[in-house]
Amino acid sequence: MTEMLFPPAAPKSIAVHDEAGRYPVNRIFCVGRNYAAHAAEMGNEVDREAPFYFLKGPHAVQESGTVLPYPPGTADFHYELELVVAIGAPAFRIGADQVENVVFGYGLGLDMTRRDLQARSKDKRQPWDTGKDVEGSAVLGPLTRRAAFGAVAAQRIHLALNGQIRQDAHLSDMVWSVAEIIADLSRLYHLAPGDLIMTGTPAGVGAVTAGDRLEGGIDGLGGITLTIGRAEEGSAA
Q: How many helices (H) and strands (E) does the chain have?
């Protein structure tokens, strides 16, 4: 047996509705600018030639219903509600007509973003990692198996901040469909069970502060909630 110099990180997982087993999380692929209205509110245009992506690591996983401390290094922390697609079978260079066979299920996610750091990276033409790949920034609700949810169509997607609706759209507003996204990603990566895809956010994103509560929903899926906590104090070993 290989000796580890220190204990490896515990695997991250999320709940599945009405099941005892949990879905282990590997990679989290995020689709950028997949709702035209959101791209416009951020001063961007949609690239209709192909989707584009950024990634979050498992360290970003935060479960729905928890308290997320306000992160360090930012004064402009934003919410983005999204449909999450969970992969359930290997997929490499598949067509859009084969996608149904590789989807395990669907859920809700919040792509929490240090917007000021993302904007600074954009201005300098640098990667978005410090703005997007943040500890606790992939807030995930329980998954619903594909057969129980059915097809992704025109289901409503909505988010309230402290009881006030801020995001309200339909999944049919996505520029790139779930099938198109998975087929495209499968030409770039060997997709595998444990991979999640956050499919982009509608217009209405905005900042949160300590004490704020987010509540989101998609027709046919369980909801998602998050409370923003106070920033953590520094510590040393």
A: 5, 18
Domain locations in the chain?
15-229
Residue for token pair 């999380």? 25
Beta strands in 149-230 (DSSP E): 156-161, 164-170, 196-198, 206-208, 213-218, 224-229
Q: Which tens digit of pLDDT belongs to each residue from 149-162? A: 999 999 999 999 99
Q: By CB neighbour count within 10 A (0-12 exposed, 13-18 middle, 19+ buried), where does 233 fall?
A: exposed
Q: Which residues contact 6 (CB under 8 A, 6 or more apart)?
A: none
Residue 83 Cα distances to 9, 10, 27, 167, angstroms: 27, 26, 16, 13
Partners of 207 in the β-ladder = 78
Q: In the prediction, which pLDDT does 176 show?
A: 95
| 8 Å CB contact between 38 and 75 | no
Q: Give me the CATH topology for the region 15-229.
A: Fumarylacetoacetate hydrolase; domain 2 (3.90.850)
Residue ranges in 7-161 assigned as alpha helix (H): 36-41, 115-123, 129-132, 146-149
Type of residue numbered 182: I
The mean pLDDT value for 85-109 works out to: 96
